Amino acid sequence: MKIILLGPPGAGKGTQAKLISEKFSIPHISTGDIFRKNISEKTPLGIEAKTYMDNGKLVPDEVTIGIVKDRLMEDDCKNGFLLDGFPRTVKQAEALDSFLNDNEQKIDTALLIDVPKEFILERMTGRRVCSKCGASYHIKFNPSKIEGKCDACDGALIQRKDDTEATVKERLDVYDRQTQPLIQYYKDQDILSAVEGTGEITKVFDKICNVLGAVGK
Ligand code: AP5
Ligand code: MG
Ligand code: ZN
Questions:
Q1: Region (LID) spans which residues (predicted)?
Q2: Residue 175 resides in a domain
């Protein structure tokens, strides 16, 4: 199964991606996580990406597209994958389509997780992420069992640098201008599905499984 997750910052893409990737045994590919790993390892890519990310801007398309193509060529993507946070511009979507087309593959579904803006700020400012494995928590909605520690790997939980109020506003603005057009792009291809991302995490996941079950048939 080849899936794209679409949705505004804080919609719950990373949270749901983890559950989907476990249930359907497909790799979870998050461009944001790839950039954050490079930032923590201070690689040239990380140094380049950091200035954009800290300001809530998109990393340039040429850089991002190259990274995703390399990742999709790895063996574990042969039977499917879940893209989280990519594509984010029409240019990225077109590059992905042409790459998959060249490899005689196609996306099965672009799944939009829709969350109204008024929910987003509280989700982002209360988010804590694992510094080791990237898992997302929330101080109120999804707390870890031991405060400040990841349930999965015991890593320290930290706040993302781009989760401040000002940067979140910029990221929402960037989403509206650059990523929102992809909803129509995938509607036109007849592969868009949407679920409401409000309510409990497990309930949202149930809705997603219903959609993906139908796609799988
Ligand atoms: P990225 O890391 O992709 O960030 P994002 O798209 O802004 O989305 P987030 O990761 O912030 O939110 P999410 O939807 O994953 O929500 P989560 O599950 O964590 O990108 C970061 C930056 O990298 C970009 O700004 C850009 O600079 C760069 N970048 C990445 N990809 C790029 C690309 N393709 N091109 C160019 N640049 C790129 O949930 C959020 C919080 O809500 C958590 O605390 C969670 O516990 C909580 N939560 C989740 N579900 C629920 C629920 N149902 N109810 C209550 N709380 C919930
Ligand atoms: Mg995420
Ligand atoms: Zn962890």
A1: 126-163
A2: yes
Omega before 44 within 30 of 0, i.e. cis: no
CA-nearest residue, atom 55 of ligand 1:
141
Residue 83 structural domain: 2-26+79-115+167-215
State how beta strands 157-158 and 127-130 pair: antiparallel
Whether 15 is in the pocket of ligand 1, judged by its Cβ within 6 Å, is yes
| CA-to-CA separations, 31 to 50, 88, 110, 135, 189, in angstroms, rounded | 13, 10, 16, 14, 23
pLDDT at residue 37 tops 70: yes
Q: Is 131 annotated as a binding residue?
A: no
Q: For residues 111 and 21, is the Cβ–Cβ distance under 8 A? A: no
**Residue 190 φ/ψ, nearest 5 degrees:** 65, 30
Query: β-strand 28-30 against 2-6: which pairing, if any?
Result: unpaired
Is 181 a member of any domain? yes
How many distinct structural domains can be found in the chain? 1
Residue 194 forms part of a structural domain? yes
pLDDT single digits (tens) 135-190: 899 999 999 999 999 999 999 999 999 999 999 999 999 999 999 999 999 999 99
Ligand-binding annotation for 57, yes or no, is yes
The answer, as to whether pTM is greater than 0.90, is yes
Q: Domain of 95: which CATH number? A: 3.40.50.300
Q: What is the DSSP letter of 149?
A: B
